[in-house]
């Protein structure tokens, strides 16, 4: 709907950033009501908690998902929340939900429009209960405009199949392969929903209006493949590498094995000039591309990684040693028991929660690719036992102890 106004929007002058003391989090005081389950939805609330939001998680009295999704993924995705159990199928549960909505700034839920309205979260009812509330809605194939699959259910793996990830990763229609179950699209969609919420909060600041902020698994599946979708006059054929045997995109952007292990060689701009500048490789610079990958593989295997790293030092080309998930984790590992965790110096940290209430340690990634110059990021507290804050939360919204006891 914005296409006709796009040029005018892009030509607007940059708006000045609001002033801030930097003492607290960006979302300090923002109340979030979390009605999500599984992975993508809960990721929204746990991310918002890192920036100071107060998140209240509502779970059904009878579990809606299995322990793997509810507990194992919950160790990460339910951090920093207070948890209340409500039977939303009962009048009492719906009344409690209405009170929670009335006090909330943000409500998060994952489900189709049909499920949303059945739960009592239609735009009309939200506007009546709390006109300034923002609903963050996450689903599989939905969006601002209706389509033939808007009300279809789906999970990460189904979105991978529908958007082409499985074909691209597997190498073809005959060998489709799932990419990183639960990690490729689910968590990304939760982050996309946070970005959508950021825009909605900015709009509310300027207009006072609430509304709906949306994200979808299918949209995230397309987002991570956008680099393959650009077309323009003179573009080479869409023949990007695919399948588990793919090692790179041509000889100048490719994995090679050095004498002491695997590395990635990147010379996407310099290409042949990069080879001419290295004495050990100069004689290969004029080889045709069909032969070059094999020739480079043979030559790189004759020397250790350190030799090639030094050879390309100071140029715009490089070799990078390939690592493992374990080595990456260990290089960024910090123990909770050792005191304050510094999140300001790197894109992520792995925190070993060695004082975890489950009685064992748990290694969890603290994503902090966004590191604000003004504002504080925190590591939220551990996932609560589901329902442990039920009495506290119901008391906060006006229920007397005897009424709470009757509901329980």
TrEMBL record:
Alphabetical list of Pfam families matching this protein: CoA_transf_3
Keyword Oxidoreductase appears in the UniProt entry: no
Superkingdom of this protein's organism: Bacteria
Gene Ontology terms for molecular function: transferase activity
Coiled-coil stretches noted in the UniProt entry, renumbered to this chain: 271-298
Keyword line: Coiled coil, Transferase
InterPro entries with a match to the protein in the record: CoA-transferase_III, CoA-Trfase_fam_III, CoA-Trfase_III_dom3_sf, CoA-Trfase_III_dom_1_sf
SUPFAM superfamilies found in the cross-reference section: CoA-transferase family III (CaiB/BaiF)
Name of the molecule in the record: CoA transferase
Native species: Albidovulum salinarum
Upper taxonomic lineage: Bacteria, Pseudomonadati, Pseudomonadota, Alphaproteobacteria, Rhodobacterales
